[in-house]
Each structure stands twice: as structure tokens, then as C-alpha cells.
Amino acid sequence: MRIAIIGAGPGGLYTAALVKRLRPACEIDVWEANAPDETFGFGVVFSEGALGGIEAADPRLFARLAAACEQWSRIDVHHRGRIVRNGGYRFSAIGRRVLLSMLRTRCTELGVTIRYGTRAPEAALLAGTYDLVVAADGVNSSTREAHREEFGTEGGERGSRYLWLGTDRTFTALTFAVADTEFGSMHAHAYPYAPGLSTFIAEVDDHVWEAAGFTGRGAGTPGGGRADADRIAGFFVDVLEGHRLRTNKSRWGRFAVVRNRRWSHGTVALLGDSAHTTHFSIGSGTRLAMEDGLALALAVDEHGAVPEALIAYEAERRPDTESMQRTARISQEWFGELDRYTDLGLEAFNAHLITRSGRLTQDDLPSWSPDRVELIRDRFARADSRLRGTAAR
């Protein structure tokens, strides 16, 4: 089987590696318009369950990933100079560049061809010479946009403006912080992803954004993202403990909602943010893209024929992603109504945030059951056994 993958983000590379593990004879080509180390953002968060899925599917990749991850077990809430520490959680995070490097190395080891600095041909052209085309080209997927009607694409931008930043302030937990300013309330989400490095996402309502005089220009323009990052650092100086904020292609934006009534059109399949998005306040975009890749790899291995594999892939993944999208929508709406809760006392504010006003619990986040993990482990173990048997002959 010949497979073309458009986009060398975590979802695309993980898909390539897993298909190659299950079916080494497959020819897999990945196209990426950017250079290998050219990426946006800072850190990527994984829940304990997400790492369990990676361990079951590829123990070698998991060992490298686990060794490089920062880990924490709390959610800290900062509100008007005081902090509540909520325990009982287990999260890990890693730098996006480091994760991509690990996935790139794993693909190379397995024999996947990656064409960096090369824009992929249109999916329709690829479909003429490849058995399966995977569109892992992100929230602004040109593949999806070229066939919006066929995929049944819905969505648009929604909610407050946000700016994705980094900092050398070492947070020790997933942190939510509120800053009371003369222009109104602002809030931030932060978490560690490497020694001495953390992600810091600032979110601001329109009326506050305008009153504060933020520029809206990117970090590469004079007076743009860099100046805004410095101003945000001033508003959150207590939380940042005096540390600066860093930019990396940081631009003010709004969360882009993406839903599709169909995840495939002919032999072209959507994966990750090209198929669905979830608000960053629940931190699951990369996780969902990689879990899509796992489900697609398993479906291709089990069914062989592409049409049946794509039906099985969507049937497996759609329930979890739609559940996560509902959870993310509730979370985003709560943060959009933050002013309703900021005058509450610390304990009450914390309770509202952690439960998003009683509408969310930890049970709202899909997890991997032991039986499901064991099934995945068995499927890949059998593939390894077949490969060893072939090599012996």
C-alpha cells in the first residue's frame, strides 16, 4: 500500500510511524512545507492516559518521550494574590520541537520518507498515485478547505482573543491565573514543558483588549507581539515572579472551531485539527491528533481495503472527539464568562473553575481503559512478531 501524508506535525508523523510498524511493506511519504525545526508554540501536554496509549503502541518512542517530559500532579489557581493547589492529577508535557524531533527520528528509523521544505501536491493529484491520502495539515487545512462541501465542514472563530507565549519561569503545575487590571480582568493558562521553560497563554475579552490598547500585530512586526508580551508580563508580574515572556510566531487570535460531518472523501482522510479542534483550556489538540493516527493505523492494518479502513477509523474516533469538543466548548464558555466569578472568594472561585460551574468533572475527559490499552499492545506485539519471523527466514 502507498500512503501520502500531508503535514509533518505530531499527528502526521505519528500516523506514519505506526502504520510502518504494523505494515513495514507500506510505502509512506510525508510532505511538510516548513523546515524540520520550524514550528510554532512551545509545549505539548499529555494526560496519563494519552501516554499509556503511546506506550502500548510504540514502547521505544514512549521511553524516549517519558525521559524528556516534565511531570506534575496539581492544578494551581491564582486569584487576587492567593493560591489554591488542587492535587490528584497526573500530567506530562514536552517541548513541541523536541516531540517533533523524536517523531522524525522514529519515522526515519522505520523507513518513512519525509520531504521537508516541500509543499504537497493537491490531495486529488496524490489520490491518483497513492492508495490513501491523509490530510494532517492542521486547523487551516488547505486539503479540507478545497473540499468543504464534501467533508461537510462547519465552524469559525469564536470567543476571546489569546496570545500563545512562553516563559523561563518554571511553573510546577498546570496553572490558571487571573489578573485584575485597570482595563478589566485578564486570565492565563500556564504549564511547564522543559527544565526552566513553560508555556503561557494569555486570554483577553474584546472590551479589555481594546481598552488596554493591544496592537494585534505579530511578533515579527515593530511594536507587535513583543510589545504586547511585555505588557502582559507586567499585568501578571506576581504570577511570573518577574520573569519575561517569550514569543514564537506569537499572534493574537481567536479559537478556531472545526467540525466535519464526514472525515473522508474518496481515499482522502482528515486527521487531527484538520478534522476537529478543541479549546486549549482542556489541552488536548496534540493528544487527539496522535490518537487519530493510532486509530487510523490500526484500521488500515485490520481492514487493508481503504474504504473499509476509513469507515472503521471514523467510527472509532468520532465519539471520543465529539465528547472532547463538548467538554472544550463548556470550558471555553466558562472562561468567556469569567467576570461573573472573579468577585467570589478564593475557595468558591476555585470550585467554579475546577468544575467549570458544576458542568465538568474529571470523568468528562475520555481515558484509556486497561482492556483498550492491552488490545493495542497485543496488535503491535503481533506485528513485531511477524516482522521477526520474516527476518529470520
TrEMBL record:
Domain of life, source organism: Bacteria
An annotated Gene Ontology molecular function: monooxygenase activity
FAD-binding domain sequence ranges: 131-324
Matches recorded under SUPFAM superfamilies: FAD/NAD(P)-binding domain
Keyword vocabulary terms for this entry: Monooxygenase, NAD, Oxidoreductase
Keyword Ribonucleoprotein tagged: no
InterPro entries cross-referenced by the UniProt entry: FAD-bd, FAD/NAD-bd_sf, PheA/TfdB_FAD_monoxygenase
PANTHER family on file: 3-(3-HYDROXY-PHENYL)PROPIONATE/3-HYDROXYCINNAMIC ACID HYDROXYLASE, BLR0106 PROTEIN
Protein known as: FAD-dependent monooxygenase
Native source organism of the sequence: Streptomyces laculatispora
